[in-house]
Amino acid sequence: MCLSNVYLLKPNEEKELLSKNVASISYENGELILKNVLGIPTRVKGEISHVDLVDNYVYVREKP
User: Fold this and answer.
1) What is the mean pLDDT of residues 5-20?
2) Cα–Cα distances in angstroms (integers) from residue 24 to residues 11, 12, 20, in the given order
3) Is the pLDDT of residue 64 over 80?
C-alpha cells in the first residue's frame, strides 16, 4: 500500500503539512479532498503542484 503526505506550498515556498498517510485525492466544487488511510477527509482549495510517487509526497498550491 502506498500512502503519501500532502504539503501546502505557501507563497514564500514554505511547506506546511496538510495530511499524513493520504490514500486518495479527489476534486469536487473547487476543492481537493484528501482522504487518509482511516477515511478522514481534509478539504483544501488548491491545485496539485507536484507529485512524487517514489518518495510518497504531494505538493498543493493554495487558491484564493
Assistant:
1) 92
2) 25, 27, 11
3) no
Q: What is the pTM of this model?
A: 0.88
Rg of the chain over CA atoms, in angstroms? 11
Amino acid at 59: Y
Question: Beta-strand (E) ranges in 1-64?
Answer: 4-9, 15-28, 31-36, 41-44, 46-52, 57-62
pLDDT in tens, 24-52: 999 999 999 999 999 999 999 999 999 99
Among the listed residues 29, 17, 3, the one whose alpha carbon sits nearest the alpha carbon of residue 60:
17
Distance CA 58, CA 5 (A): 6
Q: Are 11 and 29 in contact (CB under 8 A)?
A: no
**Cell numbers at 5, concatenated:** 503526505
